[in-house]
Amino acid sequence: MDKSFWLDKWEKQEIGFHLAQVHPLLKKYYQTVFSQADGVFVPLCGKTTDLTFLLNQGKYVLGCELSEKAVAAYFQEHRLEIKKQQLGEFVEYQNDHLSLLVGDFFKLSAAQLVGCQAIYDRAALIALPESMRKQYVAHLTNLMPHASLLLVTLEYPQPQMAGPPFSVEKKEIDSLFAFAEVNSVYTNNIIEKEPKFAARGLSYLNECAYIIRW
């Protein structure tokens, strides 16, 4: 998937994937996954309010986002002073315990994530087509050889709708993370709460959560 696809989405403000409130599954599983971590990495973070929730728990939060417009919007909407600098191929927006790196996730280095022990992925894996998901997981584990991950995914009949977001079923999660301890902790059909997806012809839409450790 071309980077310009997501940059164009932010430019046109076609961001139906953005949630205005903290994701309920982050609240539900926060203690289990993140309570012992000093820092949390949020890949493809956009301008999610989940960043604020994690910061409010006293965590160091490191996000990576392709769109500088999304990162700038987060700082503006939360009235945060910006300390901005160039870090190699990335532009860093920093404030206290928050660091958002603007750039390509696949160009991150392990040295940039040394302060993180846990990962929160609500919108990264499901944003990628199947052809890129193995590469994503491989790079994630290279960045963090040991980590706890809260992964939120969607399941639906893929032929009924072209992603993103893409359907990623449990058997694929088990395969992608075959090296890790994978626990499926939540599955709920949310199609009645998502009329825009029902209008696109989906017969069901399962929201799923996994706690994964390696």
From TrEMBL:
It catalyses: S-adenosyl-L-methionine + a thiopurine = S-adenosyl-L-homocysteine + a thiopurine S-methylether. It is found in: Cytoplasm. S-adenosyl-L-methionine binds at residues 10, 44, 65, 122. GO terms for biological process: methylation; response to metal ion. The keyword Metal-binding does not apply. Its EC number is 2.1.1.67. InterPro entries: SAM-dependent_MTases_sf, Thiopur_S-MeTfrase_Se/Te_detox, Thiopurine_S-MeTrfase, TPMT. Pfam families: TPMT. Keywords: Cytoplasm, Methyltransferase, S-adenosyl-L-methionine, Transferase. One of its GO terms (cellular component) is cytoplasm. The keyword Cytoplasm applies. One of its GO terms (molecular function) is thiopurine S-methyltransferase activity. Belongs to the class I-like SAM-binding methyltransferase superfamily. TPMT family. This is Thiopurine S-methyltransferase. The lineage of its organism: Bacteria, Pseudomonadati, Pseudomonadota, Gammaproteobacteria, Oceanospirillales.
